[in-house]
């Protein structure tokens, strides 16, 4: 994927207008910083743990991945103790929280070792 700076700025502006992001200002900031508001805010119904935020963010940025790939790529946002923790988060989502929004791409619902895709039903993408 290759996006120009103006394309990225247009997307950010759209997300700010829809209240999915907010700009964060601070003394001495040389660049505009943004903070997500799709979960854990007074504006949304989604409440995620830090582990869930790390996984959702990684899925939104990179698409379908195996639990091992998710663990490695989300490590900067949340330090997972082991693969079992990643699989536990994914199992909880599939069973309780995200069933309407996530689908298993390979394998069965019981096997979280399958890659996960973001469905087009994600409310913040419409």
Describe this structure in words.
The protein is of the alpha+beta class and 126 residues long. It folds into 2 domains: 5-36, no CATH class; 50-118, Winged helix-like DNA-binding domain superfamily/Winged helix DNA-binding domain (Arc Repressor Mutant, subunit A, Orthogonal Bundle). 39% of the residues lie in helices and 11% in strands. It contains 4 helices and 4 strands. It has helices spanning 5-17, 50-62, 67-74, 83-97; strands at 21-24, 33-36, 102-104, 116-118. The strands form 2 sheets. The protein has a two-stranded antiparallel ribbon with strand order 1-2. A two-stranded antiparallel ribbon has the order 3-4. Helix 2 (50-62) crosses helix 3 and helix 3 (67-74) packs across helix 4. The two termini are 20 Å apart. Residues 103-126 have low confidence and may be disordered. This is G20.3.
Please describe the topology of this protein.
Layout: H1 5-17, E1 21-24, E2 33-36, H2 50-62, H3 67-74, H4 83-97, E3 102-104, E4 116-118
Antiparallel strand pairs: 1-2, 3-4
Helix pairs in contact: 2-3, 3-4
Cα-to-Cα separation, first versus last residue:
20 Å
Mind describing the biggest β-sheet?
Answer: 2 strands, antiparallel
Taken as a percent bin, the fraction of beta residues is: 5-15%
Helix content: 25-40%
Number-wise, the strands total: 4
- What general form does the structure show? globular
Overall tally of domains: 2
Organism: Klebsiella michiganensis
InterPro entries: DUF480, WH-like_DNA-bd_sf, WH_DNA-bd_sf
Protein name: G20.3
């Amino acid at each position: 994927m290759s996006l120009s700076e103006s394309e990225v700025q247009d997307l950010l502006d759209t997300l700010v207008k829809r209240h999915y992001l907010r700009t964060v200002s601070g003394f001495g900031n040389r660049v505009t910083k943004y903070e997500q508001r799709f979960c854990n805010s007074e504006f949304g119904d989604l409440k995620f743990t830090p582990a869930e935020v790390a996984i959702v963010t990684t899925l939104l940025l990179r698409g379908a991945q195996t639990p091992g790939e998710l663990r490695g790529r989300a490590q900067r946002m949340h330090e997972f103790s082991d693969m079992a923790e990643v699989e536990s988060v994914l199992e909880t989502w599939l069973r309780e929280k995200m069933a309407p929004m996530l689908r298993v791409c390979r394998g069965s619902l019981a096997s979280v070792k399958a890659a996960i895709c973001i469905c087009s039903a994600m409310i913040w993408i419409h």
